[in-house]
Specification:
The structure holds 3 protein chains of 3 kinds. Chain A is α/β, with parallel strands linked by helices. Chain A is built from 8 helices and 10 strands. Chain A has a 6-stranded mixed β-sheet with strand order 6-7-8-3-9-10, with helices on both faces. A 4-stranded antiparallel β-sheet of chain A has the order 2-1-4-5. In chain A, a hairpin with a 2-residue loop joins β1 and β2. By secondary structure, chain B is mainly α. A 3-stranded mixed β-sheet of chain B has the order 2-1-3, with helices on both faces. The longest helix of chain B has 52 residues, at 17-68. Chain C is mostly helical. A 3-stranded antiparallel β-sheet of chain C has the order 1-2-3. Chain C has a two-stranded antiparallel ribbon with strand order 4-5. In chain C, β2 (98-101) and β3 (106-110) form a beta hairpin. Chain C starts with a helix and ends with a helix. Classes of the chains: A alpha/beta, B mainly alpha, C mainly alpha. Chains in contact: A-B, B-C. Chains B and C meet through α2, α4, α5, α10 and α11 of B and α2, α4, α9, α10 and α12 of C.
Amino acid sequence: MIELEDVVMEYPGHRALDRLRLSVSAGRVYGLLGPNGAGKSTTINLVTGLLRPTSGSIRVDGIDAVAEPERARGALAYVSESVALYPFLSGIENLQLFSRLAGRHLDVGESSACLLRAGLQADAHHRRIGTYSKGMRQKVGLAIALAKEAKAIVLDEPSAGLDPSASHDLAERVRELAGNGLAVLMATHDLFRARETCDTVGLLVRGVLRAEWDASEVKDRDLEAAYLDLVTEGASNAAGAASA
Amino acid sequence: MIRAAVGLELRNLLRSPLRLIVLALVLGAGCFVVVQGQEDVDRWQEAIETGQTEAEESLAEVRGYFAAGEPGPADRSWVDLTQPRWQDYYAATRLARTPAPLAGIAFASAEAGAVTMRLTRSSDPLLATGNKIENPALAAAGGLDLVTVLTLLIPLLVLALGLEIGGYERAAGVLPLVRVQSGRDRAWIWARCLAVGLIAAAAGLVLTLLAAFVAGAGLGDVLPLALLVLAYVAAWTALLGAVALVAHNPSHGAVALGAAWIVLCVLIPAIAVERAAALAADDFALDLTVEARDAGAALAALDDEALYAGLWARFPALQEQTPERRETGRRAAREGMRIVGLEQRMAQREQRAQAQADLVAGTSLASPAVAFTHAVERLAGRGPEATRAFRHAIAAAAAERMQLYIAASWSGATLDAEDFERLVAATPDSVAPPPSAWWRELLILVTWTLGLVGLATFLSRRTPGG
Amino acid sequence: MIHTLFQNEWRALLRDGRGIVLLVVGALVALVATWTSASTDSRHDLAQDAAMQAARTAWNERQVDSAHGRAHYGDFVFRPSGPLSKLDSGLQAVTGRVVYTEAHRQNDAVHKPQQASASLLRYDRLEPSTVLQLLAPLVLVLAGFGIVSSERESGRLRLLWISGVRALPLMVAKTMALWTLGAALCVLVVGAHVLFADAVDLGRTTAFLAVHLATLWIVAALVTGASAWARRSGTAAALLLSLWVLGAIVLPRLAAMTAAAMDPLPSRDAFQAAMQEDREQGLDGHNPSDARRLKVEQEVLAEYGVESRDELPVNLGGLIMQADEEYGAQVWDRHFGDLEQHLERQYALAGGFSFLNPLQATNRLSMAIAGTGLASHLEFLRQTEGYRRELVRKLNYEDAHGVERNEEGRMRRTTTKEFYTSFAAFEYEPLTLGDLLGRRVADQIALATWLLGACAFVLFTARHLDRRGVL
């Protein structure tokens, strides 16, 4: 559903992604781990079409996202780290607005049902977004993704800044989305939540996908140790290359 | 998308007290000045009617003298209505400058030109003053009329309602979501700007229609104004779009829009006003004052040959006639030469007026605010062209009278009531404002709009994430 | 602490591209305005000197005519520039610049420079006062709308609190930093004026500077306060820009319109008709059947102890003319006195808005100090009328007494060219600064109230921040 093949992204004097190969199938959750500056956000921006790769191919639901970014985006939903919406609109109104932008007209009942599915309690539906907590806004973001009936969803650090309960709640919703057949690509720093939520975890270090694990096969401690090993190795390699 | 954007902006407007206050202020100020403008036009009409009533009463009095066979008022024994000079004096009519249908919208143009003028052979249009006594301290504040509201406040409404567009989306991170949802984030920002423009245009059109309704203007008068308002709002909406597409956050947007408003609505016009002041700095109206006085005195020294040559050049019809009495003929000819002097002074004024008009035309290219003001003031019949047309009408009527006076003086005949009525009938009683050309300014505004849309597109392609 | 915070604020202003741009653009505009205004004013002064010279030459070189003829020939009075007109031209654009003084009638000042600017009449001129009263406050708004709100948005405000900074020193330092930005523009403008001006009136220049510095402090305090109260910089920007538009564009016009609507002036026709009516009750120098004229004639005959005017050693016409002038002067004093009071009353009504709008109080005080306000204009008209009366009185006296009778008893004029060339040209005595400020007490109170209010606002905002505003 989301496929990246040999994707290279270069900025002047800096290669952000180096021949990235990554695939997320329908019904699967892929967790993209990595330290700051590893290339996670670049990957997300490439998949959502905010950036164009220097080379390589990106396909969303079989559509070439480089050649036909607008069509590809039609199959994609997106939830950012901090779901930013229009503060003067209520939860329902924001959902209706963004659904309308995606070409779907939801009435109040449908919108409410969608928000409930995303886990937002009914008493908050008509309150303005300005009064929402971060977790509530994330749920509206999920509702927007649900309403779009997308084939794939991209989440950028969705649990950052959430309390354990809200983070757990979100993880459950993400699993539900995957259960409904969506391909989920999630960039995160949270090793514990990644192992708990994802089917596959990939580790990105300095633009290179260094490892991929099946989440069910690794323990938290092993994942953390492997993460630290690879990140440290990547850093010393980079330092060596720089001194050479 | 535009429907979604309009819905969003309407909700934004209704839920933000600050935005509502701004809209209420603009509409409130607009309604207030529309009413004030109509009162000004009413006073204008009243001045015309008062003048015409006075003229009618004066004419009726003279008709009474003719009917009674009296030479003139009993307490002015020197008056003899059978003489051309007294007939001209007592046959004074009023020439009225008819207000244009939308005159009320530009009542604060501080152009206190005369709206009615007592017409005799010696009427001097350059000395015609308005019926208003202006308090200079209040006039210096600049007026607040519908033109000011539309020129300065409608753009501010566009900016106040759209201040955060683009900048907010970019700073808060809404833009990626918009792009993923709709595929076209630039189109969304344009749609929001357009929605704001529609609200501002609606406010501008409401005020325009209100002004037209209060003034009883017809569709033909309102349509150009409505088109200009729409084009002006479009130009500001395009500017809003240009800023919104590149603003990194609302603060940058606010500063850029505020600065643009200042430059286009305050700074460029202020530079033009300074330039206009410089153009007028060495004009002490010596041609109208010292030189005119001395030229008048110099006429006495002209020999007959030069006097009559000058007069016949201006009034060729008089060549067919010879003065019955030499001294009377010479006196009348000297008076006739005053018209020549007046017309020369008017031509000199025209040159200065042309320099000013060129300045305004040039500034119109640099600022849509000036272009809009210029066009709308002309539509209202209160621009300098209208004043000039009135002056020319006065000068033409005075010259016509002068010719009749000279002919009568030279013939030496005794004039009667019929001559009096002929003199009255020969003078026009009103001047309509000249037709206004507003296409050039409309074209300027459309060019600004297209230029800004082009600039916005160019800049947004260079802006990361734009 | 205030010093450190102040330094830090200036560093931020200079390192932020916006601060530099505003400072550079503001300084450029200020210098351009000062230079163009000074050069326009100099051209104006030169042209005025030439015009005065032309009028004087015409007067002096005219053939020797009768004094009464000369009274009708008249003289021209040119309005002088105010002492600080290069800084603030005030009402000079809307008041006539030439007055034709002649016998029997008081003419209006004609030829307003503003009439030349046609479609640009509704815009302000780019002169130093415009820069200081409109653009400098705007520079402060654009430079300072985020001065506190951006600190809050970025979380730096919390850091400052934790570092021990209290709200009052912070607010004072930020207000001072903003004010010094405006003050720099102000000093630049006035400094350039002092450098380029031929003569500097120190008292007026100091008062001009003080009024504008006070206003900029008020603006700086309002901007800092509003930025502290606003939750977001965008809100602060929208609010402050709206307030600027209100204070700089809308309220001054609204004040003028309100005053004109509340206490309307008579129409010119009505005013002249009323004056004409009173005038007609008096003498008409050209009306031989006038009863009053006969009364004057009787009095003169009695004074000289003769039976008929042919026996008089003076020209009776000149004496009648002067009597008529004196009556006309009384009529004018009454009507113009009323009109003058009316104009002042309207101006005072508009002045009420100074308590709502500090920029208006500043504008009125600035014009008064520059000698280009309403009081100076009315004083010019009074002095012009005084000059006209003296001119006509001398000419009428000459008309009456500059005669002699020959042996046949026929009257002959003895007026010489020297008599006419002995007339001194009109010289305007400007009102003193004390006089002018004495007439604008209400505006001074308004500005002082705003100054105190602005300080109180800073204090109040600081207390608010101390209690709950950091987050």
